[in-house]
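User: Can you predict the 3D structure for this chain?
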Amino acid sequence: FIKENESKASDLEGNVEFLNQKRNFHTFESCRIKDLKKSLIDNKSKKTAKPNQKEKILICSVIRNEYEFIDNYYNRLKDIVRSFPEYEFYLSIYENDSSDGTMQRVMNKDYSMFAGYSIISEKLNTKYYGSVKESDRVKNLSIARNKSLLAGNLLNNMEYILVIDVDVEFKMPAVEKILNFKKMVPDFDIVASATKRKRVLYDQWATREGPRYAPEIQELFESYKELPYKKYYSVSSGFCLYRSEPFKEGIRYDYVNKVTGEGDCEMVVVCQAFKEKGYDKIYMAHEAEMFHNHK
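Assistant: Here is the predicted structure, written as structure tokens:
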């Protein structure tokens, strides 16, 4: 099945490809797996938007066995595009090895509100871990996040990358605080929401003041959250906005902590990579409160 998509502008070219990565063969071959790239942008990388040109944001999500969250996730995406017309939004979804009908539900949605999108599904037969601190799990996650980031060459023309976890619940005032964070800290590199789960900080593993996980981060967060925002060593929170330029320079997600040399959260390691290149302005916007709903 191949379908051509008409582009929305003269400098965009519609394209659809099939992707099937065979782990035992370094080849790609066509099959039912879909990599929908509605718009491929020209290869000229722009550091900033031209005057009167909308800034471009690529929303990246990786999913697996998230069937029950897809409808809410999709509705929130629509709300973002509708609520912030001053931006031009693109979407990249990467999925592999779901067994609950996730991909069918994803593919039944209409993504025409985006200026361009990519949806990739692969069958890799990777182990399903759930939320655990296993090196193999974060290795798989880092690979998946990079595939979402690089799909369709969409990155090349973006000003921002917005990573959204499918199971994070949020309202538009919180999104506005993230997108407008540049008004408070114009030179920020990364900013994350303050996401909670059952009244405590979600993703405590990725929220750090140093290279190692510290259990006291929850207690510290309770005092920090009185501030509108604060600088951290690393952040994630399931809703994280990045400047795109470091990714254009070659930074990628990885799973080996650059200080300890051990397997670690991919969201921490990408913050370390940013810092190595001098992009060390990493924040959490405490007033951008969101909620994690996974069981």
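The radius of gyration is 18 Å. The helical segments are 70-83, 102-107, 135-150, 172-179, 181-184, 217-224, 245-248, 266-276.
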